[in-house]
Design a protein that fits this description.
Layout: H1 3-13, E1 19-23, E2 29-34, E3 38-43, E4 48-54, E5 81-82, E6 106-113, E7 119-125, H2 129-134, E8 141-147, E9 151-158, E10 165-167, E11 169-171, E12 174-176, E13 184-186, E14 192-195, E15 201-204, E16 215-220, E17 226-230, E18 235-242, E19 246-251, H3 253-260, E20 271-278, E21 284-286, E22 291-302
Antiparallel strand pairs: 1-2, 2-3, 3-4, 5-11, 6-7, 7-8, 8-9, 9-22, 10-21, 11-20, 12-20, 13-17, 14-15, 14-16, 16-19, 17-18, 18-22, 19-20
Length: 304
C-alpha cells in the first residue's frame, strides 16, 4: 500500500490519538488502535487482530515471534477469521483450510470513538474473481472490532442471494499464557467433543480442560462462557460469546509445533487457542435476506 493510500485511509477513518493506519511488519497494512483502556494492532489482511493489551496488563493475544508476516500468508497467532468454512473444505481439498477470509484483503468502512473510551473499527471483506471462484454465494461479511478494557469482535454474514446458504466459521483466537502445562479451561464440563487427536472419536468432557500433550477438540453444545485460568500470570481470561454453539480448543504440543516452522522455540508453551465457532454439527444456514452474527468478548479477571 502506498503512502498516498495510507494518507487517504487516515483522512477518512483515522482518529487523532486513537486510530492510525500505517505499514506494519512484513509490508502488511495495519491499523494501530490506542485509547485510555488498551492498545491493539489489526492487519487489514484478514481483519486480523494481531495483538491486544489492556493498559498495565500482560498482552492477552499471542502472536508467534516466528510468524511469517507477508501479504497472502496466514499469520500464526492473533485472531485469524476462519470463514466461510472451518477446517478442510467439505468437497474440494484443494481449497484452503479454514477458508480464504484470513489471507485476503478487507476494507475499512467505519471507525468511531465510543462513549466510555473504547474504539470501534469496522471491516468488510473485499470480493473479487478469486474469492468468488471459491465461494460463489452473495454473502457480504463484515468484522466489527471494539478495542477497550474488553476486546469485542463481531462477524456479521448477510445472505444477499435468493437461496439459503450454509457457512462454517470461527474466531481462531490465540491467547497468551505463562505455561500451558499449568493452565486449565473451565466452562466445558459435560460437553461432548470430537477428539481430532484420536481420529475424531466422540467423547465427553469431565471437569476442566488441562494439557499434557496435543489437544485438538471441537466441543459441541458449548454456549456458556469459558475461562482460561492461568496461575502463572495470576489472571483469568473470560471468553463470552453469542451466535456460536461450538468451541474449539487447540494446542499442537512439542512434535507438531516443531514441524510447523512458524510457532517458534517453545511457542506451544505460551499459547492456547480457544475458538468460538460454528463447526462440525454446528454449521449455520442463513435464509435469503437474513444474517448471522458471531460475537465474542474477551475480559481479564485477576486471580490469586
Amino acid at each position: 500500500m502506498s503512502t498516498a493510500e495510507f494518507s487517504a485511509l487516515n483522512a477518512c477513518y483515522g482518529i487523532s490519538g486513537q486510530v492510525n493506519f500505517k505499514e506494519g511488519p512484513g509490508g502488511l497494512a495495519v491499523v494501530e488502535v490506542t485509547n485510555t483502556h488498551a492498545a491493539a494492532v489489526i492487519a487489514l489482511q484478514g481483519a486480523h487482530v494481531m495483538n491486544w493489551s489492556p493498559r498495565g496488563a500482560h498482552p492477552v493475544i499471542w502472536l508467534s515471534k516466528a510468524a511469517k508476516l507477508a501479504p497472502g500468508k496466514s499469520i500464526r497467532g492473533g485472531v485469524p477469521v476462519c470463514w466461510p468454512w472451518f477446517g478442510p473444505h467439505a468437497s474440494d481439498t484443494a481449497l484452503p483450510a479454514h477458508g480464504y477470509a484470513r489471507t485476503t484483503p478487507w476494507e475499512v468502512v467505519h471507525s468511531e470513538a465510543l462513549a466510555g473510551g473504547a474504539t470501534r473499527v469496522v471491516f468488510r471483506l473485499i470480493e473479487n474473481d478469486a474469492t468468488r471462484a471459491q465461494w460463489p454465494h452473495p454473502t457480504p461479511v463484515e468484522c466489527h472490532i471494539t478495542v477497550g478494557a474488553s476486546l469485542e469482535i463481531e462477524l456479521v454474514t448477510r445472505n444477499a442471494g435468493a437461496a439459503p446458504v450454509t457457512i462454517g466459521q470461527a474466531l481462531h483466537t490465540y491467547f497468551e499464557v505463562s505455561d500451558i502445562r499449568h493452565v486449565t479451561i473451565d466452562g466445558l464440563d459435560g460437553c461432548p467433543y470430537l477428539d481430532k487427536v484420536d481420529g475424531g472419536q466422540r467423547k465427553r468432557q469431565a471437569g476442566p480442560v488441562s494439557f499434557s500433550g496435543e489437544v485438538d477438540r471441537i466441543y459441541l453444545d458449548s454456549v456458556v462462557a469459558c475461562r482460561i485460568d492461568d496461575p502463572g500470570l495470576r489472571r483469568r481470561i473470560v471468553i463470552s460469546k453469542r451466535g456460536s454453539r461450538s468451541t474449539v480448543v487447540w494446542n499442537p504440543w512439542i512434535e507438531k509445533a516443531a514441524k510447523m516452522g512458524d510457532l517458534g522455540d517453545d511457542g506451544y508453551l505460551r499459547m492456547v487457542c480457544v475458538e468460538s465457532a460454528n463447526a462440525a454439527d454446528d454449521v449455520v444456514t442463513i435464509a435469503p435476506g437474513a444474517e448471522h452474527r458471531l460475537w465474542v468478548r474477551y475480559d481479564i479477571e485477576a486471580a490469586g
